[in-house]
Amino acid sequence: MSAAAVPGLALALAVGLTACSSASGSATGANAGAGSGHPVSGGTLSIDIASAPLCLDPQNNNSNGNTAVSRQLVDSLTDQDPATGAVHPWLASSFKVNADATQFTFTLRSGATFSDGAPVDAAAVKANFDSIVKLGAVDAVGSSYLTGYQSTRVVDSSTAVVTFAQPNAQFLQATSTAALGLLSPASLTGSPEDRCQGHGLAGSGPFVLKSSGGQEIRLDRRTGYAWGSSLWKHTGAAYLSEIDYKVVPEGSVRAGSLVSGQVDGIIGVQPQDEKLLAGGSVTELVRSTPGVDYNLTPNTTRPLLSDVNVRKAISDGINRQQIVSSLLSSHYKPATSILSSTTPYYSDLSADLAYAPGTARSLLDADGWKPGSDGIRTKGGVRLTVKLVYPGVDIPSRNVLQLVQQQLKAVGIDAQLDGLPLNQLAPAQNAGQYDLLWFGLTRSDPDILRTSYSVAAKNRAHLAAGNPLEQLLGKQAATVDRTQRQTLVTEAQKQLVDQAYAIPVYEQVQFAAFGSTVHGAALDGSAQPELFDTWISGSH
Question: Which CDD domains would you find in this protein's record (predicted)?
Answer without folding.
Answer: PBP2_NikA_DppA_OppA_like_15
